[in-house]
Design goal:
Structural class: alpha+beta
CATH class: Alpha Beta
Number of strands: 10
Helix content: 10-25%
Radius of gyration: 20 Å
Distance between the termini: 33 Å
Largest sheet: 10 strands, antiparallel
Number of domains: 1
CATH topology: Bactericidal permeability-increasing protein, domain 1
Strand content: over 45%
Pfam family, one: Grp7_allergen
CATH architecture: Super Roll
Low-confidence stretches: 1-7
Shape: elongated
Length: 156
């Protein structure tokens, strides 16, 4: 499948073994998730991926006016942190894991027009309490991982 990344066999096997040893069908893997996030944060910095572009946005108002946001980006991606417990649940030879993450910094250039008056500038923001969830699935036989879902839960 497009976007799949092959991962070492021992990683998913550890998760499968944890599930087999546990009588519950859901296993908490916070320590492993924190190690993965630490590695991911290091990778983001080393590869220069700490800044991600955002799509342009525009808003019109009931009164005469509009705001356009351009050249936006998220930054501080290398500070991803887990918010809740990370669990894995098996389903045959496949397991999925939701991961709640927090994000921090954003920037946009803006142009605003209200009743014939134009204004331009930049918006720098710290996003507090913004949370999104990603769901990653892994096939334990092929060791292929794929993004199963992405959701912005809280806009901050």
């Amino acid at each position: 499948m497009p976007g799949n990344k092959s991962i070492p066999k021992e990683k998913p096997q550890r998760f499968v073994d944890l599930i087999k040893q546990n009588t519950a069908h859901k296993v908490i893997i916070n320590d492993e998730a924190d190690r993965i996030l630490s590695d991911l944060n290091s990778h983001i910095i080393s590869e220069g991926l700490d800044r991600v572009e955002l799509k342009n946005e525009g808003f019109e108002f009931e009164f005469t006016g509009e705001v356009k946001l351009k050249n936006g980006w998220l930054q501080c991606l290398a500070t991803l942190k887990r918010e809740n417990d990370v669990t894995i649940e098996p389903s045959g030879s496949f397991f999925g894991s939701p991961l709640d993450l927090l994000i921090y910094c954003l920037r946009y250039d803006y142009t605003a027009q209200f009743m014939g008056i134009n204004q331009t500038g930049g918006i720098d923001g710290s996003v507090r309490d913004a949370k999104f969830t990603i769901i990653v699935g892994v096939d334990t036989e092929t060791c292929e991982a794929q993004l199963e879902g992405f959701k912005l839960n809280r806009q901050g």
